[in-house]
Design brief:
This protein is α/β, with parallel strands linked by helices. It has one domain: 3-Layer(aba) Sandwich (Rossmann fold). 40% of the residues lie in helices and 17% in strands. The chain starts with 6 loop residues before the first strand and ends in an 8-residue tail after the last helix. It binds nicotinamide-adenine-dinucleotide (NAD) and uridine-5'-diphosphate (UDP).
Amino acid sequence: MTLKKQTLLVTGGAGYIGSHTVLALLEAGHEVVVLDNLSNSSPQSLARVARLAGRAPVFIEGDIRDDTVTRALFARYSIDAVLHFAGLKAVGESVREPLRYYDNNVAGSLALCQAMAAAGVFSLVFSSSATVYGEVAQMPISETTPTGRPSNPYGRSKLMVEELLADLAQSDPRWRIGVLRYFNPVGAHASGSIGEDPNGIPNNLLPYITQVAVGKLAQLTVFGDDYPTPDGTGVRDYIHVVDLAAGHLQALNALQTRSGWQVWNLGTGQGYSVLEMVHAFEAASGQAVPYRIAARRAGDVAQCWSDPAKAEQELGWCARRGLPEMMADAWRWQSANPQGYGGD
Ligand code: NAD
Ligand code: UDP
């Protein structure tokens, strides 16, 4: 079944994954309303999305916790479903500022659901994370793998929201909730005009690598080479952000025929080590990435990759872009925009 044209609210739509998804939604012919407080993004991302799509989403600068804003939004636009990306995502910061994380991510999601229920909007796609599985002994991770105890407040906030949403779906059959557990999103749109623009020094591996390559940072620090993995460095399931965006359209599609609470892993099913990532980036970009080995980073798991079969069976979705494309696209974005959106 193809998705009929809808009017969609995208919270956090100016951010990294949100902006790529807004573009995919516009390209598929949907009407899009973005609600973003710009706490970790620039309105330039949406200006560039509009240029790529040939039309603009509606943009409302505001906070998901502000019920005056959400009430007015739902009264003005006839929203069919919500894609909920808005949240804070820096693990280290969440350890230092747990109240800000629980407020933004948990209380924010609660407020959004209250506003949705009041407006009679019951379809929701939520951005969760593989971090909810915690430390898992057996790879790959499927949706039947029990959730664990995430090692930090960020991860726990995601798990709390998942549970809140499960309770909500249990309480009222009108809810249609798709929880998407992302593995490691990387890369950028092939145009090189939208991409990941982290504030300050990146926490994540690939933006750190691209900033070394562009000369903003001196060298990569590899966190640990003594893990029980083939080359001793951590292994993750990196997924191209454009594939991830496509997964959201398929999830919306699936919610047309599935009520209740559903969960899908969005990953490639393939794990790569930190050093494999470094070498794949060097091959794709022609740039050297100097690195040094340091101690393990607190809270990191040795390995994490998905079994993506459920999404393939139920959503008809699978990741199509491999590592060389992830690297080439990340580099095109970084080299064309060394200052991110700040260069505009
Ligand atoms: P991002 O920071 O680029 O995007 C989040 C957006 O939400 C930003 O534009 C920010 O300004 C906005 N926002 C934050 N709090 C808000 C609030 N209270 N009200 C309105 N807007 C608010 O992050 P991203 O990488 O695009 O991640 C999107 C979602 O996916 C997040 O929920 C994140 O936790 C989740 N996720 C991300 C990753 C990843 O590695 N990038 C992995 C798993 C899950
Ligand atoms: N990593 C690293 N150096 C960095 C950033 C990350 O060696 O500067 C490693 C990290 O230890 C992990 C992998 O790269 O093994 C992915 O880390 P990232 O922070 O991107 O994602 P997550 O920890 O959420 O899986």
